[in-house]
Each structure stands twice: as C-alpha cells, then as structure tokens.
Amino acid sequence: MNISLNWLKDFVTWDCSVEELAEQLTLVGLNVEEISDFVREYPGVVVGYVETCQQHPDADKLSLCTVNNGESVSQVICGAANVKAGMNIVFAQTGALLPGGFKIKKAKIRGVESFGMICSESELGLAVKSDGIMELAPDLKPGTSIDELFGYKDTVLDVEVTPNRPDLLSHLGVAREVAAITGSLLNTPEVWSPPKAGKEAVDFTVEIEEFADCSRYTAHLARDLKVKQSPQEMINRLTAVGLRPINNVVDITNYVMFELGQPLHAFDLNKISGNRLFTRKSKGGEKFVTLDGVERELTDQDLVIADSIGSVAVAGVMGGQRSEVDEDTSDLLLESAYFNPSLIRKTSRRLQLQSDSSYRFERTVDWENVDFAAKRALYLLQKNADAHVVSNFVDRQDPDRAELNTVPLRVEQVNRLLGAEITTIEVVDILASIGLKSKLLGQASDRKSVTGQLMVTIPSFRRDIFIEVDLIEEVARIYGFNNLKIESNFRSGTGVKRRECDQVLDKAADYLTGSGFSEIITSSFVSLENVHNLGIVEGDYRFEMMRIHNPHHGGETLLRTTMIPSMLDTVRRNINADAEIPVKLYQVNSVFLPSLKLEHELRHEDEKLLPLERKVLQFAIAGKEEQAHHSLPMVLMELKGIVEQLSIDMGEQLVIMPGGDEPYYQKGLQFILSNSAGDNIGSMGLVSRSVLSKYNIDFPVSIVELDLGKFGLNVPTVKFVNYSRYQASTRDLSLIAPETVSYKSIIEAVEYSAGKLLVDVEMFDIYKGKNIPSGSVSLGIRLKFQSTKSSLKSKAVDVAINKVTERLSGTLGVTIRD
Amino acid sequence: MEWLTEMRENGLALIAEIDSIDSLEQVRVELLGRKGKLTTQLRGLKDLPDDERPKAGAALNKLRQEYEVLIEERKTSFAAQKEATLADGCDLTLPSVAPVTPGNRHPLTSVINEICDIFYGMGFSREDGPDVELDYYNFTALNFPDDHPARDIQDTFYINDKVLLRTQTSPAQVRIMEQQTPPLAVIVPGRVYRNEALDASHVAEFFQIEGLYVGKDVSLADLKTTVLQFVTQFYGDDVITRFRPHFFPFTEPSVEVDMQCMACHGDGCNVCGKTGWLEIMGAGMVHPNVFKAAGYDSDKYTGFAFGLGIDRIAMLKHAIKDIRYLYENDLRFLSQFRSVR
Q1: Helix or strand or coil: residue A100?
Q2: What percent of chain B is predicted at pLDDT more than 90?
C-alpha cells in the first residue's frame, strides 16, 4: 500500500523526520518497505506565447510557429492541429527534460530548424493520451516555470499491510496509527451532509436478495454533473500512490477508496434500465463484459448488481461496460456497500480478476464506514464535478445483523503471555491510543495493579479483534516488542542428543564426502517422460505418481517415486560442464510412493490420502570405461567397495546379493541390498546403455539406493575381541577355477575347510587367457593362519592347506596350478 | 647529500623486490657491477669539489658494504630454500599424490546442521514432517480460515482439495503436539513448496526450519531470549536485532525478527534493499486456536513458535546472489564449500 505523506498530512501531524516516522510505523507493525520521493519536475519547460503560426513550407500537417518565452522568440515546429497564434502553451525549450528522460534538442524537421517543442498533457505525464497540445490560461506570463503549475513533490511510503489489517488499506487508517504513535489529533475529512429540510424524493430502490451476501447497500444519486479532468492536486496524489487518473468521477471513487478504505462504484444512471437495482446471485452461464472490456462468464455463485435487463456489475469486483461513466454522463448512481468477504474472494479468484476493490472487500470493509465514504465522495462530486446531490438516498441494512463489539481482557494474561509487568492503567492508555475504549471491571484501585480486568469496546474499523489474545497483541505492539525484557534465566531445557537416524545419516555423509562424493539437492517433481525413460511402466508401483493439480507454468507435474532421473540429469549436466571424471554425487531426498498405511495407524481420517514418503540415500559414480578384474565395470565394483565399507561403518552387515530386475539397470549387473534382519533395503546397479543414451551420457554410471528408514539403525554396541599376539603364517595358492564357479563359493569353501586357524583370505590376482584353459580362470588367493595360543608350526598349516585343496577340487572342480 | 639518500632508498627497494636467484643476479649487477650505479658514482668522485669528496667517498663505500651484505643474505636464503626442496635431487614442490579428492555436503545441509546443533544445545530435539500434507494441517489447524486472504500469502501446489505440498514447515506443529505432551521443544527442518514465479530470489522448492516450544507460563520474553541466544551463536555477539509486529494466523502476537545488515551496518545497501535491516525469522506466541486443534488447553499451556528460511541464510552467509545456484547442483558451485562443516 502506497501512502502519500502530503495526503496523510490532511489527517494527522508529526514533527519527526520521515525516516523516524517510517521506523516508528515499522515497529508498531506497519512495515515500511520503501521510502521514495515522488518528484515531478519540468526543467527547462516554461509557459510560451505563440506569436505567429503558419503552415510548414514542406509538410501539410506541420505548423511553423514562433514562440515567445518572455525573453526571446524561437522558431518551433508543431505537429498538433490545435496550435494557433495568440495562445499560451507549454514550451519545452532546447535542453529541457520531459518525463521518461526525454531530452529536447535542436532538430531539423523537413529542412526547417526547430528550437524546442510544444507539449501535450500526455507528454507532461499528466494524462494517458491527449488530443493535441495543452492550452494554458491566457493570463499566464510567458517564461513562468511549468513546475509552478504542474510540478509536484511528495514522499511515498510503501507499507506492507498484513491480511488481518484491512483498516490500514487507507490513508485515514494509517493516520490512526500515526496518531497513536505521536499522540496527535486525528482530523476527519469534509463530507456531504443532507439538507435538514426540503428533502427531495428519491425514485429509486434497491433489493437485496440475501443479506448474508450483502449486509449493507447505499445508493446515492448525483445529477447534472460535468465529467472532466480532476483538479491538479487530486491528480498529483493519485499519481503519487500509483493510480492512473481518468476523469473526475472515476478519480473520486478511487480517491475515496485510498483515503477511507471503502471501494465505491459509480453507475451512469441513464444507462440503468428501470429504477430498481438488485443485489443477487448471477443466473449462471451469463456472459458479462466488465469495464476492462473482457467478456466473462458468470456462475450462479457470483454476486452481481443487476437492473431490469441483467447484470450491471460483478459485485465488489468490477463494474460492467454497459453502465460505465463516460464523458457524456450527467447523472450517476453511487454505490457504497458491504459484501460478504469470502464470496467476493471466490468470484475474484475464479475470474482471476483482482481489483483494488475486491482486494478490500475480501479483507472486509468497515461496515460503519460504508455511509461515511459515500458522503465523502458526494462532497467531492459537488466540488469537482458541480454535481447536484439528491438529498434522499437508499440505505438498505441487514436488520438482524449482530456484531460482537466488546471483548474482555485480563491484564494478568497480558503479562503472562508477554512476560511483562504492565499495569492496568497502562493497558487502558495503550488501547485508547489506537481507538479502543476500555471499561475497568472491579475496583478503581485495580488501576495500578498488573491484574485488572477490562471490557474493551471494539470500533467498527477493527473487526479483526475477536478474542483476548487479539487485544494482547495490540498491547504488545504499541508497548513495543523491543521494550520487553529479556529473561536471561530462561532455559528452554537441557541438552538433547541427536536422533539415531540423524547420526546414521551424518556418519554416512562423512564417509561419502571423504570418499569423494558431493551432496546434491534435487527437485521432488518429475515428468512422466523421465519415468518412461527409465523403462518404468504401468503395473510398477512407481508408475503411480501423485499429480500436481496446478503445476508451475512449464514445470514438471508429478511427484517423484524414484530419484534416478534427477541423479542422471545432474550427472549429465556436470559432465557437459566439463566436470572432472569420475563424477561422484550423493543425495538424501524423499520419494512419494503409494500409501500402505493401515486404518488404525491413521491419526486423521484423511491421512490415507497422503503418500508414503520414503527418505532415500542415493549415490552414484560416472567414471571412465574401465574394467575391474578383466571384465567387470570399474564404476560398479568401486561402488560395491563403497557399500562394503559403508556397511562396516554403520556396524551393519549389509548383504550384497547379485540379483534384482530394475528396468534401468543392465541385466546381470545389479544387486539387491539387504540388512542383517533380511529386509530388502536397497539396490545397486550399472545403468543400462539404453537409459544412458536417453540422457546423452557417454560414461558408464553406477548407482546405489538405500532406504534410510531401514538402514543403519539399531547398531549393536561394539564388543572388543582380543587379538592374537603370535606370529601369523601366510600361504599363497594359485587356483584354476571353472568360470561357472563364483569367487564367493570358492571363499566359502576355503573358510569351511581350512579350520579355525584361518583368520583371513584375500584375492591378490585374477587372470584369464594365455596358458589358462579356455572356460577357466586363474585366481591367486592368500590365506593367513594364526593361533591365539602359540606360534604356528608349518605342519599344522600344511594340514589345513591340504584340506582346502581337497575341498576345492572335490566339490567345485577347482585345481591347484603347478 | 640528498642524491645519496635517494640512491640508497632506490637500491634497497630493488633488493627487497628480489624473488628468485635470477632476479638477485640482475639486481647485483645493476647495483654493484662494473657499470652499476654505485661504481659509476665512485668513478665520478673525482669531479666533486675537494671538500665534498672524502665525505661522499666514505658514504658510497659504506653503501656498497650495505648492499653487499643484504644481497648476500638473500643469496643464502635462496640457497637454503633450494636445499630444502631439492635435497638429494628431490623436488618436493611437485604436486602431491592425493588418493581421493573429498567431496562435501551441500551448503544448505551444512546450514541446517549448524542451526540444529545450536538448538540441540538449548534442549530442542529434531523432528520431521511430511512434504505432502493435508490442507487441514497446513492451513485449517493453523487457524487459516477457509477462503481467507491469509491463504494468499503462500501460493500453494494442490494435489486435490484436501492434499497439498506444504507451503511451510509449520504444519509439523500440530502433528507434534498431537503426539507429545508439554513441555516440548522441537525443531523441524524440511523442504517446502510454493507455486511462485522463479527469479533470483524465488524458487518453487526451498527449505525452512520450524521451532516450537510449549510449556506452562511460556512468554514472549522467553521467545526473545531464545531467538537472541540463537542469533548470538549463529551470527556473533555484535549483531543488532529488532522485533517487529507482524501477522501469521497461527501465532499471536506475531513478530518478525530483523538483523542489522552486516554488509552496510544499517546504512542501507543492495544486500538489505536499502533498509539497513535483514529479516531473519518469523515468530510468535502459539495462537489459542492452534492449541485447540491440537487438543491442548490454552489456559493451561502457552508456547512460542518460529520459522527460518534456510536458503536466505545460506545465501547471506556465502554471498550467493541468486538462489538458483543452490539447486543447479553444479560441482563448480558445490566444491567451493569444502571448508564448511
């Protein structure tokens, strides 16, 4: 809301600086977001007298004039039809600066030199459009600065008005707050008052269909008026607060709305059919052209003002073109009303039409102000449009309207909630400063106590105050939040330990970042195309995605059930940005899966409408096309290593089982990850080439996903196991194994047969090819033996090795290479 | 003998600029060489008047000694450096061999962790709330009337009439109150969603932290104490704050907390939009209607709640001018935060 300080001064005075005023307003809750100077100046523009005016020798539509600026005479070319000798005009001399930064220079037009410009109103920024140049009063002295006529200086405060304070959407409302701060008196504006005697009859009626939709409607008639331009001061103020001046009638309705907060509407009386207006719901399906020239379809939920033919206004939102005030209007009907806020809001939203009027109605207007604002407008219509105001008028009110206008307040509760010690009399004074009168219940001696009881009368412009705490807030903001003491002995509690799930995540993040992974944060939204690209199709539970009803323009429309697309997208973008290979990334984000909640788990009956939100830890490597152990993709085996180490870090034996059938992983190159309890908690795999090609990624990518809800929790406390202090003995075995035998089964066979002296076994070589029979692979494994009781004798190790070789050849067909 | 003083100073400046063994040799020749400045001057002594000659000669010789000592000192230090790096032919200035270049957390995660750590110390525990939320928890239970303009403050993504993407972390307040009994002190970090036009300071998904404290006789002064403790620990002792009345449907009284702009110290600059203040959080006393929705007796309990925008804090802290950098996940951005905890 823009507040003009010149305008504000009509109602209230202050003797501090603008900055101090803004600061004080901010501290009582009217956040001043910007202080700006509104300056309209016309450097170099003066009153000019046209001495001669002839046709340009070389152009039919141009005139060649001589203009006297009081000191000298200049030759000026003018394109307006209405220029003639002997008139006073607005003369922008060479070097003058017009609004919009337009600088006047000497020019040559069709071979003739021109030293300046004769201006129209629109060129001065005083009108949106104008026909021809502006003619000034003949008694003005040439050379007079135009600033004296049309210059304007003001300071405008941009005040943030919160939705609970519609009373502040007006200059008078803001003036009330200023008065509360400065203690100055509040002036009220001049209004029209009906003559005491000789009342004219008014031959007009208003029917209200439902008082619930419209609890008050006043209609005044103003006749024989002249539509013209508003006085300069009104134009200046409207322009300063960002409104566009149109004509005196429209300007008055806008002016009063910004002055008093009540939206008004002026109908051209002669365009209204019959002498009755109806406030009713639209008949539905009705086509209606609003003032902005747009045809809109109304529903039977929209409140309209109608005459005997049909609608003339969408109530509280915008008037109709049919009854619009124009230059020929002589009689008008002025509407001032109170419409149901939620009704106006619904219509305004449905029509996507928010006006200054609907903005105020949906925040509720001041019921008592309806009549006052109308009378203010009538006063201005008399003054600015020479209107004759018909002395009788229509004022329809809901006879059953009940309004709460007193609220009890316990001063004890004020102090309890604020942590303060404010006395009853201080509370009374604070409330009085903002127009809230209170009555002390109980004894007069309570005035000095901090526990008095009050009954507070709420004025009609503060119907946002319903309950005690609303009053406490008023006391607090005027008392000043910054004046409340800080209780240094307040302790909110004792220290708290982080949740187990946060600790797990933190540790995983420590390990991943230490291993070169960087964290990314990606969008919860996904497109259907993205999911299709992964090969996820109907039937897969991840295909059932929640759809955003009102998506962002051009944005994605679904809530993701998988984070794979976001990871691939990020990988691609980084590779395209020349990131160093390998790219290692991780993320901890949520996916939104079809709900599996059981009835008895629901805390709220609609809870079953919510998805199952699963927090997933995902990490990925995009690396070079390299192979581990001669044939396996390096990126996959590296990631396997990360998972194994992470598993140890979490104290959880993650089981990594080859298997799984994710459509986006390459067949045979994927794993299922399960925890020690046997729950399937994640997957790992090499992204298939077909998926990568859809993302234009030329490097192999492997990805791990772990369900954080099931990962790393309930880690058993570590129990120390004593280690052997005796010398260990190692033996290397060179094996020839059929390709069909897995490394895992060989290790299991070794561990099974070697006896308890075996403490470790690891692979140190793998080879396939020359000198190795086809269909076989050569493996070098190192076995480490150790006893906890004594140094090992070579013989004991030999025995173990024999058992191992027997087992390997007997059950697996694995032989020892000579 | 002004010329002598000037000459000495020029010479000393040249010596100070020496940064390698090569430049040392150049300077030595320039100052002390056969065609050097000093030698030339010494040769010119014979042209001086008799009474000046001995004095000038002594001064020039003294200067020569001074130059020689200084240059020798520099030479020794270079030699020592060379020895240290190339001892036994080893050049230890060659690049190190790092097995892995570590990655790092996202700066938003780091800010969340840092804030949570501060509140852990004050006795707050961490909780979560769902991203996809019921209209009931996001609005109705938080005292947003149906069809009220207060709902316009936040442009909401709807799934259907009853389900939406939370526009704030505040719905967690009622969820937590339904499950716990006072006294309670919780913080809830999380992602929130708003259907807003994207620009340098707006994205559709961003992060907040909610705080809630409920007990007996909890006051606005207690809220101030908590907020100031947090601000001091997060931003430092010398930060100036102010509390300004505001409106949130779910708190009353409601405040916004401003911090004096650290870039301009309150004078007004581009960082603070010329106001001298930066809004750092919204807060207030829990509204009785919210207690009612949670099944609490508002005559028995009072409490406060607050909310912080994480993105803005991270942007201010790390001088990030455009919020979209936070969500582009470009390693050229992310890798700059290695030193952040």
Answers
A1: coil
A2: 55
pLDDT at A555: 63
> How confident is the model at residue A488, as a pLDDT?
61
Q: How far is CA A364 from CA A166, A213, A243, A399, in A?
A: 7, 12, 22, 19
Interface test with A, best of B159, B259, B311 (most A CBs within 10 A): B159
Question: Pick from A472, A495, A502: which is nearest to B253 by CB?
Answer: A472
Res. B147 pLDDT band, cuts 50 70 90: confident
pLDDT in tens, A245-290: 899 999 999 999 999 999 999 999 999 999 999 999 999 889 999 9
What does the block give as tokens for A517? 């992974």
For helices A411-418 and A468-479, angle between their N-to-C axes, nearest 10 degrees? 60
Contact between residue A303 and residue A214 where contact means Cβ atoms under 8 Å apart: yes
Dist. CA A288–CA A324, nearest whole Å: 13
Nearest residue of A to residue B332 by CA position? Answer: A579
In this prediction, residues A643-669 reach a mean pLDDT of 90
Nearest CB to B222 within list A345, A487, A584:
A487
Can you say whether residue B147 is alpha, beta or left, with left for phi > 0 and alpha for psi between -120 and 50 degrees? Answer: left
Q: What ipTM was estimated for this complex?
A: 0.86
Comparing C-alpha atoms, which of B291, B137, B176 is closest to residue A605? B137
Candidates B118, B147, B304, B330: best to mutate against A (most CBs of A within 10 A) is B147
B271 CB-contact burial (10 Å; exposed 0-12 / middle 13-18 / buried 19+): middle
Cis amide prior to A738 (ω within 30 degrees): no
ω before A341 within 30° of 0 (cis)?
A: no
Greatest CA separation for chain B: 109
Q: Do B274 and A33 touch (CB under 8 A)?
A: no
Report chain A residues whose CB lies below 8 A from the CB of B257: none
Cβ of A418 within 8 Å of Cβ of B219? The answer is: yes
A662: which 2 tokens?
């994710």
Strands A701-707 and A612-622 come out as antiparallel
Shortest alpha-carbon distance between residue A32 and chain B (Å): 9
Contacts of B149 in chain A (CB under 8 A): 163, 345, 362-363
Q: Cβ A512–B130 below 8 Å, yes or no?
A: no
pLDDT at A789 over 80: yes
For residue B136, is it left (φ>0), alpha (ψ between -120 and 50) or beta?
A: alpha
CB burial readout B19-54, b (16+ within 10 A) else e? eeeeebeebbeebbeeebbbeebbeeeeeeeeeeee
Say if the Cβ atoms of B225 and A488 lie within 8 Å: yes
β-partners of residue A621 are A584, A702
Place of tokens 């009108």: A127
- Copy the structure tokens of residue A601: 């788990």
The minimum CA-CA distance between B105 and chain A, rounded to whole Å, is 5
Distance (Å, whole) CA B132 – CA A336: 43
Nearest to B245 among A29, A341, A590 (CB): A29
Q: A612: closest CA among B177, B329, B132, B20?
A: B132
> With contact defined as beta carbons under 8 Å apart, do A28 and A478 qualify?
yes
- AA letter at B275: T
| DSSP one-letter code for A498 | P
- Rounded to two decimals, the pTM is 0.84
Distance from CA of B320 to the nearest CA of A (A): 16
Give pLDDT, residue A556. 66
Chain B residues touching residue A577 (CB < 8 angstroms): 330-332
Residue with tokens 């000298």: A72
DSSP structure class, residue B142: G
Burial of A736 (0-12, 13-18, 19+ CB in 10 A): middle
The pair of structure tokens assigned to A31 is 């956040």
Q: Return the number of other C-beta atoms located less than 10 Å from residue A35's C-beta.
A: 16
* Interatomic CA distance for residues B245 and B252, integer angstroms: 10
